[in-house]
Fold this sequence. Notes:
Elements: H1 9-32, H2 35-44, H3 46-55, H4 60-87
Amino acid sequence: FISTLTENQIVSVVITFGVILVLWLIESFATGAEGMTKDVLSYLSVIGHMDDFIKGVIDTTHVIFYLTFTFVGLFLTYRSLESTRWRA
């Protein structure tokens, strides 16, 4: 998705790396949070959903989480490309 927002590949790589890093570190932010913020951050944590996969357990909630991320990314990419077509 990020690569459709910028024409420069280096900028795209840096921003994508930052997004992936934040998604990876959300678990650490969740441990320092309290209440509803902790629950939301824990749910958004990529590591938290991957733990069961590592153990060999396939939970449908985790599968739905990753499928949702995939479809949101595809949808945003589609909308970005569609917007670029209209501007050109």
